[in-house]
Amino acid sequence: MKVAVVGSGIWGACSAYHLKKAGVDVELYDMWGAGNSRSGSGGASRIIRLAYGDDKIYTELTDNSFNFWEELSNESERKLYDECGMLWLVSQEDNSYIEKSKKHIKSVGHNIEEISIKDAKEKYPLINYEDINNVYYEKKAGALMASRCCKNVVRKFKKKGGKVFLGEVKIDENSLDGNFIMNFHKKNENVLVLSGSSGHGFKLGPGLGEMVKNILVYDNKIPEGFDINRLNTDKTVSQYYNAQIKYQEKKRLFN
Length: 255
Ligand SMILES: Cc1cc2nc3c(=O)[nH]c(=O)nc-3n(C[C@H](O)[C@H](O)[C@H](O)COP(=O)(O)OP(=O)(O)OC[C@H]3O[C@@H](n4cnc5c(N)ncnc54)[C@H](O)[C@@H]3O)c2cc1C
Fold this sequence. Notes:
By secondary structure, the protein is an alpha+beta fold. It has one domain (about 1-85, about 145-250): FAD/NAD(P)-binding domain. The chain is built from seven helices and eleven strands. It has helices at about 10-20, 55-75, 95-105, 115-125, 145-160, 200-220, 240-245, and strands at about 1-5, 25-30, 45-50, 80, 85-90, 110-115, 135-140, 140-145, 165, 180-185, 190-195. The strands form four sheets. It has a three-stranded parallel β-sheet with strand order 1-2-9, covered by helices on one side. The termini are far apart. The chain binds flavin-adenine dinucleotide. The site of flavin-adenine dinucleotide (FAD) has 29 residues, from helix 1, strand 3 and helix 6.
């Protein structure tokens, strides 16, 4: 099998790497290079965390990504991943987004715990808690050095014999319901299109890359929720986006 991956942002880089590792002949194309400043994956840092409300698949994909990031960071001369933990400050009255996350985070072996405002004030005194109703601490979370991560994934890919080229194709970044899009192209089944990573590419990138490899190499099914045909109906809006729309008034988004 021969695969051309277009774009060496975090999704392309991770997909190329996992495919190459599985023995596929992979060519990776990018207009400007891995983690370049024009791309979504450019810049210094990105958050990785497990809480995704009731969207279990994203919690699982993130969990699949942790080992990859830790390994990459250990292999690199510079630290690429800092597991510093993450504090969630909820200003809405409805904290169901986090509450719904709990069972999924638990199911992958981690946890998110609520801390009282009083304890939070003592522990993190620099924060203004004036309009905060709930504080949660997610231990298995941290910061990724974004652009460097991309470059290092591509290095890892090249080390395995992967080929990198300059080339050009265009994609859109977000979907109507906020969930990812993964489909074989209608007119060319040799093309797998990945899109809609907006806001989440790093958390899930390595897990997603592995999923791409499993689909292409082992004929695994594309998760139903990623099928673009779902957008032909008007009934599917993700729980994540519902939350954002619901609280638009307060202009507090979850990421
Ligand atoms: C400010 C900001 C904060 C974010 N915070 C987080 C966060 O905390 N945690 C998190 O997980 N995610 C976060 N994200 C989202 C995450 O950074 C993106 O989802 C991710 O980087 C997208 O990766 P990608 O590979 O899909 O796309 P990109 O990184 O945009 O990669 C696409 C690549 O394709 C190349 N390309 C573009 N056009 C062409 C063309 N015509 N031909 C060939 N190549 C082309 C580009 O050069 C680029 O390298 C954030 C994003 C932004 C912008």
